[in-house]
Amino acid sequence: MGLTRPNYNNIDTSKFEIDDPLTEINTSLKTGSNLTDIGFIFKRGTSGDNAAFLWDRSALEFALITTTATGDTVGSVPIAGYSNLQIQNLISNKLLYPTVDGTNGQVIVTDGNGVLSFGSSAGGTEWGTITGTLADQTDLNSELNTKLTDTSDINAGLY
């Protein structure tokens, strides 16, 4: 006797366990381009929009969202809003972000090895105040040039 593939209407359980270490969804796509968003939708009942973790095919990115979509939605999942994500640490492109907030006036600095932290600004040229009326961009450039006497200590704000 051959095995039949159950469809979603055949599965009714309060606990769903999967032994496979990798799970593939959207497996019906064998050839061609994907034309739908792919992901998981979490029903929230009457407490508000549903929540979802999905691959947004139009933006080519993963998104944690709220949505009016259900598991029956086909194509693009409408995004009502983006959801927060709380994690212990975020490591991206070998950058380790600070785990606590900095204080007023601090900037993000790096140790040169990908570890970011909050620190003081490295300084820069103090230009003082420009007074008077500037009629056009030429006047502004002229005023800024008179304030700038030494270009060796200019910081572009990239720390």
Structure description:
- The structure is a single chain.
- The chain has 159 residues and is mostly beta strands.
- It has one helix at 137-147; strands spanning 38-42, 50-56, 61-67, 81-82, 91-92, 95-96, 107-110, 116-119.
- The strands form 3 sheets. It has a 4-stranded antiparallel β-sheet with strand order 1-2-3-4, with no helix packed on it.
- The relative contact order is 0.09.
How would you concisely characterize the structure shown here?
The protein is mostly beta strands and 159 residues long. It is 7% helix and 21% strand. The chain is built from one helix and eight strands, in the order ββββββββα.
Whole-number mean pLDDT: 79
Strand and helix order: EEEEEEEEH
Biggest beta-sheet profile: 4 strands, antiparallel
Radius of gyration: 27 Å
Number of strands: 8
Distance between the termini: 68 Å
Number of helices, where a helix is a run of at least 4 consecutive DSSP H or I residues: 1
| Shape designation | elongated
The oligomeric state is single chain
The helix fraction, in percent, is under 10%
Strand order of the largest sheet: 1-2-3-4
What structural class do you assign from the helix and strand content?
A: mainly beta
